[in-house]
Amino acid sequence: MNNRQYEDEAHTDPIGYRTGEGSEFHRAVHSAEPAEVGRSRAATRHARAAVSRKRRGRILGVVLGLIVVLVVAGGGFFVFDRLSGGPAAPDDFAAGSSGDSVVVRVHPGDTAQQIGAEAVEKGVVASADAFMGAAVQNADIASVQPGYYLMPSNIPASQAVNTLVDPSARVGSVVISEGRQLHDARDVNTDAVKKGIYTLLSEASCIDTTGSGTPTCISYDEFNAAGGVDDPSALGVPDWASDRVRGVPDRDRQLEGLIAAGSWDIDPSASASDILRQLVSESAQTYEDTGILTAGADSGLDPYQTLVAASLVERESLPADFSKVARVIVNRLAEPQKLEFDSTVNYSLDTTEVATTDADRATVTPWNTYAMEGLPASPIASPSVAAVEAVEAPADGDWLYFVTINQAGETLFTRSYDEHLANIGKVEAGFLDSGR
Fold first, then answer.
1. How far is 289 from 292, CA to CA, in rounded Å?
2. Helix ranges restricted to H, 318-372
3. Burial category of 6 from C-beta neighbours within 10 Å (exposed 0-12, middle 13-18, buried 19 and up)
4. Where is this region: Disordered (predicted)?
């Protein structure tokens, strides 16, 4: 910006109002209309008084324009401080009259006024103006992040703001890690249970609205039942997956892979169906943003097949090898040759281990790729965006085999079966032994 912004050398105050010679403020203070000739002294005094009133009105108008808009940085909230003294104090609830708690949502980019309006709608505060006034006085408002917050109803605005900025008020936060499955899985070697998505959602839905100390939750069974409806489109399943999802042989598993890995905020006061609809529909958009709808030109797979293959990539390899494992899948499908992935055997058993038994591999299921050619009937986990992108654009190579040889995840690739057998001989002692 040039140092000289105005030819008349007008000054600019900190928020952009011109106050130098030639400005509205300068004219309001220094100019006066000339009195008419021939008036009486009383008329002249009256005229001067009118001019003075007009001058004061101009000055007040400029001063009102200088009321500072308070910007609360970092949290994305813009709070407007209103001129006090004239209007009556905004409606506010009295202390000590709080009721049951309710869930208030903070959307990305919400202003204090918008949060206040939501709080009014939910019965937390009496007016948005009172909430705004309290927000102006609490610098911690900048720390508030988008999400859901449990807040008592019928409370003073200052208490509402104090509650909102308390991290313990946030509810409904859940992290779904890459490769997570809908249902709990047991580690064969340690017997540890890895919580499934439905269990994580159940835990995130727990809230205590009455202050009794005993929270209410949406149960695992409720999520499982909601996810098994006959019409998957009612849960936000996109058109490119609907027909295939309807064909999944186990209704309890039909949403597998359709809830993307990531950090989520769910409304604990919503129903299980509404929560799943939010997660599935927003996940579909996440997958579509990767180019999944058109990626088949390179991989030869349709969008749902891409999702299925990505789940195998996620469960079979580390990110550094995603694109190579994706190429092995594409190459084997083209042969055609069975994929023979242990992860698909584990999926039907709800267990986790690097290796599987001969008996397990011989068991025919819609997911066991040792017992059939082609891809499993559905994804076997929630793939990461990186895994999806790897399948959309696999690495160049003619590999048909790979084996991970140690705990560090070192993986060897080859097209030759004889070389593959030699690579298996390099496996760290005990690494591929089954725990069963």
1. 7
2. 322-334, 342-349, 358-362
3. middle
4. 1-21
Distances (CA, A) of 153 to 127, 143, 294: 12, 22, 49
**Quick one: tokens of 252?**
């309890």
Q: Which amino acid is at 282?
A: E
Distance separating alpha carbons of residues 270 and 259, to the nearest angstrom: 17
> CA–CA separation, 235 vs 144, rounded Å?
30
More confident residue, 24 or 154: 154
For position 89, what pLDDT does the model report?
A: 86
Closest to 93 in 3D by CA, of 149, 131, 150? 131
307 neighbors 292 (Cβ within 8 angstroms)? yes
Contact 429, 408 (CB under 8 A): no
pLDDT tier at 81, thresholds 50, 70, 90: very low
pLDDT averaged over every residue in the chain:
84
Contacts 24+ apart (CB under 8 A), 200-204: 200/174, 200/175, 200/176, 201/174, 201/266, 201/272, 201/275, 203/174, 204/171, 204/172, 204/173, 204/174, 204/266, 204/268
**Phi-psi sector, 263: left (phi>0), alpha (psi -120 to 50), beta:** beta
Strands laid side by side in the 101-106 sheet: 101-106, 147-152, 170-171
